[in-house]
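Because discrete structure vocabularies remain unfamiliar, we turn briefly to a single example record, giving the amino acid sequence and backbone structure tokens:
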Amino acid sequence: MNKYRKDFPFFKAIDEKSSVENKDLIYFDTAATAQRPFIVLNAMTHFYATENANPLRGLYSLSERATMAYENARDTVAKFINAKEAAEIVFTRNASESLNLVAYSWGLNRLHEGDEICVSIMEHHSNIVPWQMVCQKTGAKLVFMECDKETGIISDEEIAAKINSNTKIVSVVHVSNVLGVTNPVKKIGEAAHAVGAIFIVDGAQSAPHMKVDVQDFNADFFAMSGHKLCGPMGIGALYGKRALLEEMDPFLRGGEMIEYVTREKATWAEVPHKFEAGTVSAGDAVGMAAAIRYIQSIGLENIEAHDRELAERMMAGITQIPHINIIGPKDASKRCGIITFTLDGVHPHDIASLLSEEHIAIRAGHHCAQPLGQYLNQTATARASLYFYNTEEEVDCFLEKVAKLREWSGFKDN
């Protein structure tokens, strides 16, 4: 997989020693954002250089080309996650906005006191805070499915206990950005639909790393971000079943999302356009589609296998280092390229700072998952996240440096 590094200006500069700023940098923070290949940057440049017009509005050829580029991007996203039709894809700024759209447009209008929203304890704040808002405004209750503290697995018993006749929304992360575990979304979705609840999946971490089929696990909504799958920042997508989207009121209102406006009222455009108010991020949508085509050309099965191989190599090495504490499952094949850990006596922020001095970039903190940290009694952790452009040599260098962290922090281990 190392051959793909040359496709990225970021890694090409590192490998050719041509960038002082990034010299020898090892990038292990893809779970926060991925790097971008030339093909994505070129696609966006091409759009703005040759097709730059306001899509959907102009009755002239340039605007029509811009509209075609934008709608082709929508079609690419739809096929990527196996939506039934492109109209089921709403472009948003990111997965967070996608989840907020559902919370505002579906949750606020349909929930009442006594209803329940069920999420997992491992959710990113983006899949907790919007539902807290819905509960505060409607009187509904937020319920958490808890996972096993060692393996990260949500048991069948926990699913059955927390999803019941009062449940109206079940919203779960597909892959945890802290534990790296893949949740049994098909099983959870079946439990949700059995009680008449809608089923929402946060796919920000899964879409870049594995094949996603929203029809297979029967998601009612699926949220994803472009920047985590080698696309630009500021673009994401919400998949929603057309029947549900048709029932929902718009989240944002203004230009383009209307059909007709009078002094007193307005009627809405057809889905998905009624959810895309104002001038759209067409160039970013084009970039996201280019990123999807790029990772498809590599093969998601190849990406998943490489992630697993690197994670297994990292886990095998890091568990041999004294005073290391692994957060989540010890089986690296269950972790989707994410290794989260603490080190006795060294704060995670210090771990990240010390490794930064060695030109290694990792993430440290609560990872926007504070309820999970509270549940695991961890205020902060260090996280290394891997992708297809990382190498075995980078993993070995990381392990070598981690083994020295306590010594660098003043500990004199025997």
